[in-house]
Structures are given as C-alpha cells and as structure tokens.
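Could you join me in thinking about how sequence relates to backbone shape in a protein? Label the sequence line and the structure token line clearly, so we can match residues to local backbone shapes. Once you have written the record down, we can walk along the chain together.
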Amino acid sequence: MLSKGISLTRRLPTKPTVISACVGLFWMSLLLAAFNVGASAPTLQVGDIPPDAFGKSSTGDVIHLKDYRGRIVVISFWATWCGPCRKELPILVNLQKRATKEKLVVLSVNWRQGYVEFLQIRKIFKNLSTDITLISDEHGRAGDAYGVKAIPHMVIVGRDGKIAAIHVGYSEEDVPVLVEEINSTWSKTSAQVSSGN
C-alpha cells in the first residue's frame, strides 16, 4: 500500500527553457569531446621523429625507440581479428630472422586487445621462436601517440631515427612490396648515416 503524498503519475517539468538548456548542453559537450579527440591525435609524416616510448614488451623490458638508432625499425600495429595483420605476421617473423636484430627490429604492437588475448598471443610468439618484440597496447596509448585509427598500421623508421614510410589499411598482397621498401630503406638510410646526414 502506498503512503499518501506519493504520486505514481508525477511528471518531469516540461518547460521549454529547461529542455532547451539540457539539449544545448548535451550537444555542446559532444562538440567539445569531438574537438578534443581531433586536437590530440598526432599527424605523423615521413621525415618526422616518431614518439619514443611504447611501454613494456612481453618479456618485461621497457621499449624505447631511441635504443634502436642505427637500425631499421618496423612498427606494426595489429590485432588477432584483423585478417591482413595475421597474414603479415609470419612474413615479419621471417624478415626479422633473416635480417637479424643488428640490422632490423620489428615491434609488433598488439593494439586494443585485452590482456587475456595478449597472453595467448605471447604463447604463440614463444612457439615461433622469433626475435620480434611483442608489445601490448591494451588501452591504445602507443596507438594514440602514432595516430592509429585503423589496422593494419605500419611505420618504418630509418637508421637515422626518422620515419621513412607510413602504411595504413594495406592488404596481404601489399606485404611483399612493404618488404622491398624495408630493404630499400636500409640502403637509403645507410648512405645517409655514412655521409653524416
């Protein structure tokens, strides 16, 4: 039994000024949020010095890009649900094996996947016996620093520490071309490093 004074048909105030103010505040907050997202996303270009820190690798090492100066660094943002990313991975594993870590470092950044998935991926990497550096980017911080909005997303950094190429949304047919580009980046930046540029 309901006590007196409680109404089941009570309505919210419907004055136009209250509703208009609420709707106006809602739209303003959406616009500010969109502006802040757009303003914080970096636009990296060829020739830029890329962000340095990635966090920790699957082995617990803190990864800094500056530690690989003098080598080609391939940064591949990927996830298990991305078909082209899965096709690219064995090619990058083979490339890392053939080039050795003295010439090339592949940073395989698992983008916006949970830690449970990351642990499963880490097991696969151990079974592959690869020198690829696996990094978890569960919250997308490294991806945000690199302006990643879609995957696959690859950044190739030359021996001089500058971005040599950026590729976004490529297919598995493009991967051999990317490998050629990585090889030519070695040649180009080797000449630049030798000449002191």
